[in-house]
Design goal:
binds flavin-adenine dinucleotide, globular, D-Amino Acid Oxidase, Chain A, domain 2, 350 residues, 25% helix, 3 domains, 21 strands, 3-stranded antiparallel sheet, 6 helices
């Protein structure tokens, strides 16, 4: 595997569970989206308040996977959390009414709270509603623990992978001293520089997030989703997130996005609060053109595979996608057409 971010680490873990030999090559010094991710799992998203793609299958698989990893690694990383989403206008209210009447949404929506009822610290002229089955996963903690465990077992190589040194050798691929039957690229947004997959339908998007503290703001433990979201942590700090930008793909945090997040937080809160920023993080989400994962075999080079396109939803999608890719690699099970990387072939770019 190339790339020890969320996708690479979880795939390596699944292969280890299946008793398969592997080597994970990745660099701790290279940027990774997982290092800055809040790890939020949100079953209802977007302007249209729709259930996230495939959430009935993805969410239980994710919880089972993180719970198993918690037990194995002695970590506490998976945190279910009630979510409150604020209606922004009368159209949101109409849409919510339709969703609340729809039996398909009964497992993910709780109820509507009129203005002032559920979250007194927030401006909520149109009220808000509860979302069930939300959670956040401490992804950086998980990935650091997995890299260390693999390293101790001699299964992780902390280095930057040089594509020019990967050469076919009969039915295998050679990389320096390593000979492998299969090479699986899990490089996140850096895959746009992978010479073996030049046509990959990636559409990366930069995100920035702030870790904050306020001496005057103490919020009950809930995920608050106004125009941006606010996630309180048990130590009294909280996170603001996240921005979205497809035009700037630099890894550096910007003053403009910091101001955007702080302005959104102050606008969401009823009273002004002093907010101290303790960390400002930026990363590139490996999104795809249709916002679905991208995975499967190279169209013409046997032995090369890819897992990417987890976008802004890696926490919920990576467990199921790695399970599916593992079954493909080890038992030849077909890749679901919706996530097969070949689905964009012969499709013109917009
Ligand atoms: C600000 C922000 C907030 C986010 N919040 C959430 C959230 O709340 N919930 C959620 O589900 N998702 C969130 N995400 C998205 C999440 O981070 C991604 O879905 C996930 O990290 C994708 O995993 P990945 O392994 O494909 O990519 P990455 O996590 O980026 O990992 C790729 C790895 O490959 C390595 N690599 C690449 N090329 C090479 C090479 N040549 N040699 C060695 N190593 C290489 C990289 O260094 C990196 O370590 C957020 C992202 C950002 C930027």
């Amino acid at each position: 595997m190339v790339g020890a971010g969320l996708a690479g680490c979880l795939l390596a873990w699944r292969l280890q569970q299946a008793g398969q030999p592997f080597l994970l090559i990745g660099s701790r010094r290279m940027p990774a989206a997982v290092d800055v991710a809040a790890g939020v799992i949100n079953p209802v998203t977007g302007r249209w308040m729709t259930k996230t793609w495939n959430c009935e299958q993805l969410l239980p698989t994710a919880e089972a996977c993180y719970r198993q990893l918690e037990a194995q690694l002695g970590l506490h990383i998976y945190h279910p959390i009630p979510e409150l989403r604020f209606c922004q206008n009368p159209d949101d209210l109409k849409r919510l009414g339709r969703r609340l009447r729809n039996p398909r949404y009964q497992d993910v929506l709780s109820r509507y709270y009129p203005a002032g009822d559920a979250a007194p610290a927030f401006n909520d002229p149109h009220g808000c509603f509860g979302i069930e089955q939300a959670a956040y996963v401490e992804l950086p903690k998980l990935v650091h623990a997995l890299r260390s465990a693999f390293e101790q077992a001699g299964l992780f190589c902390d280095q930057s992978f040089q594509h020019a040194e990967l050469l076919p050798q009969g039915t295998h691929w050679r990389y320096q001293e390593i000979c492998a039957r299969k090479v699986i690229f899990c490089e996140g947004a850096a895959a746009r520089n992978n010479p073996f997959f030049p046509e990959l339908a990636l559409q990366p998007a930069k995100g920035e997030t702030l870790l904050c503290h306020s001496p005057t703001l103490q919020l009950p433990r809930k995920l608050y989703h106004h125009k941006k979201w606010l996630l309180p942590y048990p130590d009294g700090s909280f996170r603001l997130g996240a921005t979205y930008d497809e035009s700037d793909l630099s890894e550096t945090p910007t003053a403009a996005r910091r101001a955007e997040l702080l302005t959104a937080a102050q606008a969401a809160l009823k009273d002004p609060h002093p907010i101290e920023v303790t960390a400002h993080l930026a990363g590139i989400r490996p999104s795809s053109r249709d916002s679905r994962p991208l995975m499967g075999a190279h169209p013409s080079r046997p032995g090369l595979y890819l897992l990417n396109g987890l976008g802004s939803k890696g926490a919920s999608t990576a467990p199921a996608m790695t399970e599916q890719l593992c079954a493909h690699l080890l038992q030849g099970r077909p890749i679901q057409p919706e996530v097969d990387l070949g689905r964009f072939q012969n499709q013109p770019l917009d």
